[in-house]
Batch of 4 targets.
Target 1
Amino acid sequence: MTSVIENRLLSLLPPSAISRKGALALSSSFAGIDGLRWWIDCQWNSSLQFELRLLLFLLEEHVYSGDLWRLVMAYQIEFMQGQTLRNSQLPGRALLEVEREFLEDKKNRAQLELSLYSQAIDVLELKLRSHSAKTHPVTQLSAKDRRPPDRLSRFSSVNLVHLKCSEWLSDISATGDTEDDEGCMNLGKEAGPAMVYTTEESASIASKLMKIYKTLPDVSQRPYQLVSTWVEECTEDFYMDDCATERASLQILILRAGDLSNTDAETNFLEAELGLMQSRLRRAQTEVELLSDAIQYLIESSTGKYICCLQQQTNPNPHS
């Protein structure tokens, strides 16, 4: 019998067909989760589609559907704006104005994401505490930890998270939890006979998710090619570190999905889900800082170029 978590995981996979129920929900004046899921399924870019499904997976049980709609629309508009801007042939000053608007929209999206993940983490922490069978404590972010960190303190916190993720993934590799010849993950092989069906079903879902995971864009590339000259290198490095940690947390979530055979395994999965939320919260904090710097530098550069242009128009031949 498929568990609640497995049903949720199935929502991360591409649909076999577009849902008529979702289309009808979208046509109503109150398009909720069904309408939103249908809208996501209609997106043509596979990476964007998975990112939006992941947002829905992590947040739909913890925040208002209207806020989720706002976030999904912000992501989609941002994706379209980025494509348009990269292909733009606008002159210098006009291009700076369009780029500034693009960055402000990205910052607004990151701030909304920050708010929604903060809400979701609070709810999920309560849910985890209700699993009394778990013997070891759950790592939680305090209210202080959720505030954007100063730049000096980030070195130790990022390294600590990377260390924990690396140790966990090393344990997975050491125990032989890799894909077999058929592409399925060898998770939960020690489960007893009564657990075989559930474990195999979970591993199949996890295997499909891992295939999607491997097609996601590389996070090692420099982000925001359009604004890389407008921010300090250390700020961009912090952002890249957080993106890498977020990606590692997603991999841990998928690996945990390979074994949902008992209550402890499900609690482990929920802990991985909380860890992914926390890493996305941290990335959103860094992203807001990065974009704030980029916008400020862009304004200063645009103003400087405008003043220089006026001076040239007023006195085109200063040496004559």
Note: Confidence is low (pLDDT under 50) at residues 151-197, 309-313.
Target 2
Amino acid sequence: MKEYANLGYCCSCSVCTLLESLPLPNVKFICPTAPTRPVALLGGFTCTAWFDVAEISEDSPDDIEGLDASAAHIANLLSTEPADVKLGIGGFSMGAAVGLYSATCFSVGKYANASFYPINLRAIVGLSGWLPGSRSVKSKIDASYDAARRAASLPILLCHGQSDEVVAYKYGERSAQALTSAGFRSLTFKCYDGLGHYTVPREMDEVCNFLVYRLGLENYH
């Protein structure tokens, strides 16, 4: 039987509940909680967050240390799954950002701190998120044949609402463009008119169909 372990590190338990309600009996969803830390965007307020962020823009410096730590935490959780399980990462908002950052680490084969990236990813799902470090992704992928090969073969689904008031739609769209330009050829970008910073059933249907198709689960759906 084919299985798949997905990490949905989401900003609300409602998203995890929606994921677990999808008709995917052979998919195991793991929803860890982000650590508590001060977040500059919130004036230093302490809350659960996968990394620190001052503002969501291409010009804002990225918290590479925090991103590496969260990507490593997620990879370590997945590394305990059986060897024949297909592994993927999915997330909402900041969780999506860590998922996309993990996709670049997987492709390059290492984190930004040069530590080895330990797992083989088979799918990425990002909802209402953005790509940290987008300006340097292409050069990292272009520097290695193996990185380009892994990037080209990794299926990615990005979904974003055009009325998102937290992570503006343009950042989701630009992230998709940056990834495609860097060589992530198996990327699908879906936009939703009128959708804010939340999810809706038709978006969950897209996630379900993507996982079924990309992971070869048609006979188990």
Note: Confidence is low (pLDDT under 50) at residues 1-11.
Target 3
Amino acid sequence: MLGFLQGLRGSGTEAGAGDGPGLEPEQLSGHIYSEFFAEHLQAGKETNGQCRTEDRPQSLLLDSFEAEASNQVEAPLATENDVWIFGYGSLVWKADFPYIDRRRGFVWGFKRRFYQHSIDHRGIPERPGRVVTLLPGDPGQDRVYGVAYRIAASQKGAVLDHLDYREKNGYERCSLEFHEYPSKPEPKPIQVIMYVATQANDSYAGNVWEVASIAKQIFSSAGPSGPNREYLFNLAKAMDQLFPGAVDEHLEELVVNVKRHITEDEPHLLRQAVLHEVASILQEKDLPEQEQAQKLEELLKRCQQPGGREWLLHGALQQRSET
């Protein structure tokens, strides 16, 4: 980086004759962006959270679901003391606990909404993401689809402790009836435990500006579990594969909006954010060239780390709103 910076400020650049000593910070920023950042950001478009199962067969998740009822090689036998856990968010595709059976189905009387802030999985405290919770709905009209997992009595203590920690950011346990999908003759509801984030918890976000604002937040957030958009796309993909024909307008509208941001806004927002950061470093007064190069290298590393794209996008969106 230092050699490239010195070359830009020296007798000339590869970009064209006469672009040497008189380069302005904006011009220097453009050359640095093209040389070090552009290729990485462009390559990142292939793995930036746009559902990584995009090219797999549409029925893969369903095939796997029907072929493997349990995720244990030697599952304990079912007993009357087992419990069922209902997942309607990331638990649908990411059950990181032992279970001995699983069923597709739904619960009556709720609506799924991206109304909960995520500061420990799909966001961080200073830039929270959005994840789902359930709101009361029409008991005879509204239903939420998901997956129920049967937990063996001998394993339920450890599993519930794990889920209590995993869902610690505002979620509470409740119990209700789960109905299998597709419906079976003389269906018998299953009593399940599920985790719901109530409006009283500190991370409840609500419908602030509804879909447009929520989509922008998902588009520009990431956390320890990955990009927020990945959570959205994985949920939409799972619903489409496991429950064909089921309608979730809120989820579908968010997918459309976030994909539009990725296609129409992301490329120039990333470029704008990097140019701003680079120019800020180059314009620092009394900063030796070697330290400028070191700061530029640190910036490049940050952009390459998980969540780097979202950090840039968040910054660019903030600049846009302030202007």
Note: The first helix runs from residue 2 to 8.
Target 4
Amino acid sequence: MQFLCNTFVFCHSHFTTCEVSCYCVKNEKKKKSVMEEAQFELIVPCFPTKFPYPAGVASGATRAALTRHFALQNNAADISAKEGSQETMATMIGMALGMLLARITTENPLAIWFSFLSLTMFHMLANYKAVRCLALDSLNFERSTILLQHFVETGQVLSPKQVSTMEHVLPLWTTLRLSKSAKLLHTDVKLGLRVSSLDHLEMANLLNSAGSFYRKAKYLLVERKGIVSVIMHKDSTAADILKSYIHALVMANLMDEKRSLHLESQSWMDKQYEIFIQKLKSSGWKTERLLSPSVIWKADWYSESLDEKND
């Protein structure tokens, strides 16, 4: 029962982000490796009935996402079978070497602990290096930020391989190489704002901007205390979500400048968005959708065009 409860709680807290994770599939893969090491090797001996399943859930979710990524010829079943056979062989070799090591280190606690800690650190380092080799071609929050910032500065789009060396595998607060001057736009954007959370003044400004800047859009943008929030229309598509997020990143990028955020960001979208998307496609990026948690809160509104009002 405790197994099932732990699995249920983990799935409930991650059910909209299994593929996306907090940052990307790379981060979830690394998190799963750390969870396996900590749970199965360190915690489980003390609490053998409480912790094993969350790592298995994360492992299955990321395995499915990565299998789809490697299935370049729509042969996910073949890739999955090959991965399973390789994992089985690696497990068998590991068990044989483990039994040999156990025989060598018998009745020597110091050698046991040294072997365990060194092999555990080596395993985690190997996982980190393997995840670093991944060059994912899907757009998530951080990759979209990196691509947009480089495009605004240079007019060019980075390739998936170039972006893979720049994105974070570990959580941002653990990354020592993150400089204080780095501007991570995606941390200033919130996708899927609940309309009922707005006060009267914010609602009035929202209605004004809806009539002025977002007549044909399936989304609305709201700036609140340095955070750009996105309100999605109930009829919005995956392409609309991607467009709204890029628009929000553009607005967040302009926030330090004393300008009209809605006017300037909309002007950029009108002139540059289609060019940006076409360059992404030509560089090998998948632009059909944004890898993001499911947008639970959506709204419904109707804005008359100027032509309809004149009639």
Note: Confidence is low (pLDDT under 50) at residues 28-42, 306-311.
